[in-house]
Amino acid sequence: MRPQAGAPLSRRRFLALSAGGAAGGAAALSGCAMQVSTGVSGGSGETVTLMVKPEDISPELVKQAKKDTGITIRRVDYDITKLIAMLTSGNPPDLVRAVGATDAAYFAARGVMQNLDPYFAKSSVLRPDDLDPVNDLWRYDGRVQGKGPRYGMAKDFSQDSMYWYNTAAFDKKGLDYPSETEPVTFENWLESAQRLVQRSKGQTTVFGGSYNGQTKITLMAALTASAGGSLFSDDFSRVDFTTPEARKALAWYIGYCRLNVGPTPINPAPQGWDGPSYQAGRMAMSNNGYWMGGMIGADKKLAQVSRLAPAPVFAGGPRISACQGGTGMWMPRKAKNKDAAWRLFEWYFGEAPAKERASSGWGIPTLKSLRPLIPDEEDYQKRTLRTQENELKHFSVVSLSPYITGDGFESLFNQVTPAAMKGEMSVDTLAGRLNSLVNEQLKRGKEQVG
Amino acid sequence: MTVDQVSSVADRPRSTANARPARSDTRTGPSMTTRRHRAFYMFTSPWIIGFALLTIAPMAYALWLSFTTYDGISPNWHYVGLGNYRELLHDAQTWDSLGRAGLFAVISVPLSIIAGLALAVLINRPIKARGLFRTLLYLPAVVPPVGAGIAFKILFDQNTGAANGVLTFFGFDAIGWLADPYARYVLIMTVLWSAGNIMIISLAGLQDVPRELHEAARIDGASAWRTFRSITVPLLSPVLLFQTVTGVIASVQTIMPMLLAANPTTGGLTTIPQSNYTYMIHVFSEYFALGRYGYASALLWVLFVLILVATGLIFKFTSGVVFYNVDPEAKK
């Protein structure tokens, strides 16, 4: 009905017009949002949307990308909620950062990742035979992480069960240094941490050791693997913390938290991670891999007293040294500009930025051909590299479940573990509670993946 | 003009020759009423459109999500009716976190109102450098919450914080302020630290209290406390009610200080002590750590209803004690 000119605007009519305006506005906004990628194949002259963290690609690298490839990078800050909104609206970024260990199987199982095998097969920059095994974290065959098509690639990596130690802290307590080639047992590591910790009037002036893994899911899976078992069932639809191996892993970690020799979930590191405490000489041992050498190497005095040591083992258990991160990028299946995105992918993972990362010492390159670029001029660099090369022989992919995110596991883990960490709950009771909570979430995840 | 003159003018016969043509009843253009309506809607429409787009639409979307198992990304989500609502009734974490949020509101709202009012009373007195004191006391409220949260985290760190530095200097043992059971007290201190907002509103209320009432009370021999209790507080009661209602709503929705005291990331949720694991943290965890958009939306809708009920109850139970300085009947 056409309104008469001059007729009073009734509330009903006004609200109807407002609703129409709102719907129109929403459609207009949606339309605007759709116009991100052109969808035209090719590389030079195109714009590729990258959802990354600021530290992944500096403004200088954005300029260099334009110069090297002719591609303009439109950077969107990484935010999981924004990513989900973009994926849902059919307007995903062209490349997205993620952590291979915890994210790859999760996203791949949900069908939102592009299978990159055809691209790798044609690439002269990223040849499959040149890829380090750590990139297998980005493979998923529909059931198991580590096998099947490649969905992404790590930019660099570390073996995150290793640890750094400060020789000055050991000297002060008159303790022998841990071997740089042979692993100590987890029990010995904890014993050393107890002897190294320094306390005064309820304050910890020097942490004996920090051992928290990259995330709790990778930590528990890696510890259980080191005890000779598997945290997950064969189909990854369940966890079992009551198996002897998983219980051993859980008991060790809870014991570490109870002893209060380092940061824990109930007494976290002041700055959120070990780096500042270690740098200040306030941490004798820090569970971080090769990558922390980038920070250590920037401080010559610290580098002289720092040593990288192999991942500990459980007495009688296998020697396993997994990568718990493997941060890199993946391409959404509905990316609009795949060819240009792949060109940028090649550049980022195999050309100038990859070479720059390899020579910085902030991680091991993920292409075997870039290994010679790892810094080894200084004595401490040579020593660290020797330890690292020896450790690579023990690398393995510890597969995680595609039915739960790292954050999801961590959230559930920390709902119930504080009581055990404070000695108010036994490890056996905790194991049962964890099974119940985590398996419920895994069941939901499995139903949704189908 | 006299009454007679007026009546003679009224009785005068109208000259048809000089009379202006009568105004037509079929004039074009909107009437004054229509124009006023139109103007009203034109001026309010930006807000109404914004409200519809940014409040009603997301709320309706969240309501729809609350009936599903949607997680934002998985292909097989489905409609579960009231399943999520039934589940939250049996979720111990939901009730525990709601209880913590309620306790936080019960403690923090009265404390912050009392602190804000006390500060307002202090700086309402004729003291030297009153403007400076007002500025200084209000300053914390201007500090961005993120900065304040991080500052408190540094101050109360167990091993390097200034709070424990003072304690150990005087021979006491350090306290794990950011861990259970002390984390709750630090959170309350964070809220009290920004009592300047309440102070400013209370100060405005205080300055609105007629001075002659205080003078009359003084002449009658009333003590300062009696004057405050019997004159100032009743006249301030609408302001106090406003602060109570908005304070309760804000406190049960508080999330930022808890996140900042831990580690403001999704993973950082895990380091939030149990005593600070309030309802909104639970919602945040369900949304962003576990990806349960449907369930978390149900949690939010329940909170929305609970806040409505709590607000209604506050109005009901305070209707007899809140004094409005305007006679509502006089306006009719």
From TrEMBL, chain A:
InterPro entries: Bact_solute-bd_prot1, SBP, TAT_signal
Pfam families tied to this protein: SBP_bac_1 (PF01547)
Name of the protein in question: ABC transporter substrate-binding protein
Automatic annotation (TrEMBL), chain B:
ABC transmembrane type-1 domain: residues covered: 98-314
Highest rank taxon of the organism: Bacteria
Example GO biological process: transmembrane transport
TM annotation in the entry: 40-64, 101-123, 135-156, 186-206, 235-256, 301-326
InterPro entries per UniProt: ABC_transporter_permease (IPR051393), MetI-like (IPR000515), MetI-like_sf (IPR035906)
Localization: Cell membrane
Keywords: Cell membrane, Membrane, Transmembrane, Transmembrane helix, Transport
Membrane topology note: Multi-pass membrane protein
Classification via PROSITE patterns: ABC_TM1
UniProt keyword rRNA-binding present: no
Region Disordered: start-end pairs: 1-31
Main location: membrane
Any Gene Ontology CC annotation: plasma membrane
Family assignment from sequence similarity: Belongs to the binding-protein-dependent transport system permease family.
Protein name, as recorded: ABC transporter permease
Originating organism: Streptomyces caeruleatus
UniProt lineage: Bacteria, Bacillati, Actinomycetota, Actinomycetes, Kitasatosporales
